[in-house]
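Objective 1.3, modelling of assemblies. Example input:
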Amino acid sequence: MWHIEPEKGPIYAQIAAEVKRMLARGELRPGEKLPSARALAEEARVNPNTVVHAYAELEREGITETRRGLGTFVREDVDVEAIRRRELEAAARGYLRAVQALGLGPDAAAKVLSEVSVDAG
Amino acid sequence: MLVEMSEVTRRFGGTVAVDGLTLALPEGEVVGLLGTNGAGKSTTLKLLAGLLYPDAGEVRLDGAPPRRARGAIAFLPERGQMYEWLDVKGAAGLFGTLYPDFRPERFHELLGQLEVPRRSLAQMSKGQRARFLLAATLARKARLYLLDEPLGGVDLITRDRILAALVSEWREDATYVLSTHEVAEAEGIFDRAVFMKEGRVVLSASAEELRERGQSVAQAFREVLA
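Predicted structure (tokens):
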């Protein structure tokens, strides 16, 4: 967790994206508290200002809220389904790009996906 | 602490170590001072610490010369020398006498965090000594921390511990300037990257802004200084 790759864009955006992935995977739930900016910064070896920026971005997107003196929490009314859907779409676009790089199209992609799913049980 | 250097030049004999360097650092930033060997990083840090005087130009900390702010500056030299007989207890006593802002309880916590054994310096490995001196430096409640290669000459695990300690010690009312060759490992903790070449600043940029433009600090390092 909190694996940062500096060559893949601003760190604040990577932290915000990871929080959303955790929500989509059910590792983080509505109403739950996020680690303090300092604790997360220490764990990820990043500047605490950067975590504060990430939390501000999540708040702007309506995903978290700051409770004075208590910390940052996932909002109760957060739309986890919508976040999960966007994660899934992003994964699908990644898969499709890989398929297209092989000179194949969406039909081949869908066919192989269902075959592999059967194999995986 | 507000850091300003304007047109600063410092020579050693016929060698110009720092050459008309101009730099301004806002308060509360963690600044990576980056450059290849001989770029003038150590000389710059010593000029900021007030341990060297410029031949030309001015160094100002909160508008005053560094020597007037000495009590508020914690400096970790690249190859820190310390009395061999010194142990943890002796060091706490010594630093407490030298620096009114030294926090003995924080020193002990940092030694624990950095896993420094409780023995004398003579019996410590190179990496343990480096961590011992870093703990002593960070245990001061300074307003400007100048750290020359705090990650130098120690193994990966130790570097990782040191980075964690730096993050846990960070205070927004202090400014941190650290030189390092471990750009990729350390870049996450920088607010700003200052690239030096041949005694001058070639680029001073926000680390996140560099990444926003699609370049990590390490990639910018290669591009700017190659």
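The longest strand of chain B covers residues 15-25.
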